[in-house]
Design goal:
single chain; 381 residues; alpha/beta; TIM Barrel; 8-stranded mixed sheet; globular; Metal_Hydrolase; EC 3.6.1.63
């Protein structure tokens, strides 16, 4: 068939196994997946490398790092910043990315970042409009419930054409991620605050959160539910947190901080997302539950790179280091499972009729090396 690409001598990452075989795609769609080696003229020999579905990233704040690479520095070319982020995601093996943009803030120091939101949204929309990106980009709005002005900042963007996911965050000290306030203070001091200034800021955040979070929650839920946008809770820590999320119609519990919350989410029918950096580092940087434990307890549905794009594939390798079935299941945490969570029925697996979103990966010294990336049949790396 004209336009066919034949990839052979590959280790195909299928749903629950890895099989040596051949994949054929044409016009952006997978045509055939079969065991064995092809002798077709022009077949591309992958030399035994892994051929997996492209990774699907549901929550990355990496875009913001390119718009504000240092404190007080705002990059002057928004489209260039978005393109640099896109290139980094593709290099990490990500073919579908939900760019998680911070809406609202929990301290005065976040005003500059909050002001970047319109610029970042426009840059992603422009890159998509012009067909400049390697990966397929959607928007994920990260809503800080402790901001008294949240709804004012959120309303202009809720109807954006790329908005497909929203998470409800509450970083009020003394609960969720920062249930242990001493860890928050230690984090602030490491970031350069004097101890007394950290104490004062923690108390301000606590007061703001108590005043704003309870009223912001139903307003944000109504805004997204009316638009059919998938809603996620964030940093659930207790069964009560999960019950609140379930009652609001959340479908996802992202980054549960305790095994109790992860189990409760599963029992309530909420899908769970864990941080890939947590896997790579061997634990949480803020005192939360180890994602390794969630995997052992079968309380994890998907992985997210969160703040380190390359961590997603590294976490897959680490969780699947025994190879075979274990590696195939680890890949599913970053491919098939997140696709199912967001209703992406056209991708996330190697199967005829699905999008040809593919990554070629070699494992060298227990390190995944991306050797090729294909998005909708187009080679982008």
């Amino acid at each position: 068939m004209s336009g066919e690409t034949v990839l052979t001598n590959a280790r195909l990452v299928l749903g629950d196994e890895i099989v040596s075989g051949t994949l054929v795609h044409a016009h952006g769609v997978i045509r055939d997946v079969s065991p064995g080696r092809s002798t077709a003229a022009g077949a591309v020999d992958l030399e035994g490398d892994l051929l997996a579905p492209g990774l699907i990233e549901l929550h990355t704040d990496n875009l913001e790092k390119h718009f504000s690479p240092r404190a007080g520095v705002i990059w002057p070319n928004p489209l260039a910043a978005a393109l640099a982020h896109d290139a980094q995601m593709a290099a990490a093996g990500v073919t579908t990315v939900y760019d998680a943009l911070f809406v609202g803030g929990y301290e005065v120091e976040n005003d500059a970042r909050r002001g970047l939101l319109p610029t970042m949204v426009r840059a992603i929309e422009r890159g998509v409009e012009l067909g400049l990106f390697r990966a397929d980009h959607r928007l994920h709005l990260r809503c800080e419930l402790s901001d008294p002005e949240l709804t004012d900042h959120l309303a202009p963007f809720a109807d954006g054409p790329l908005v497909a996911l929203a998470s409800l965050m509450d970083h009020t000290p003394g609960q969720r991620q920062w249930r242990d306030v001493s860890l928050l203070k230690r984090f602030m001091v490491r970031e350069g605050l004097a101890a007394k200034d950290a104490d004062a800021l923690i108390e301000k955040r606590r007061a703001d959160g108590k005043r704003a979070a309870a009223s912001n929650w139903p307003k944000a839920v109504e805004l997204f539910r009316d638009r059919g946008i998938v809603i996620a809770s964030h940093d659930d820590t207790t069964a009560e947190d999960v019950a609140q999320a379930k009652g609001a119609g959340c479908a996802i519990s992202e980054f549960p901080t305790s095994l109790e919350a992860a189990r409760a989410a599963r029992a309530a029918g909420l899908a769970t997302i864990g941080g890939a950096p947590n896997v790579v580092r061997g634990g949480s940087h803020s005192g939360g539950v180890s994602v390794d434990q969630l995997v052992r307890e079968d309380a994890l549905d998907a992985l997210s790179s969160d703040y380190v794009p390359a961590s997603l594939l590294q976490a897959v390798e680490r969780l699947g280091r025994d190879g075979g079935v274990a590696l195939a299941k680890a890949f599913a945490l970053a491919t098939a499972r997140p696709a199912a969570m967001l209703g992406l029925s056209d991708r996330g697996r190697l199967a005829p009729g699905l999008r040809a979103d593919l990554i070629r990966v070699a494992i060298v010294d227990e390190t995944p090396v991306v050797r090729g990336v294909t998005v909708a049949g187009r080679s982008v790396m």
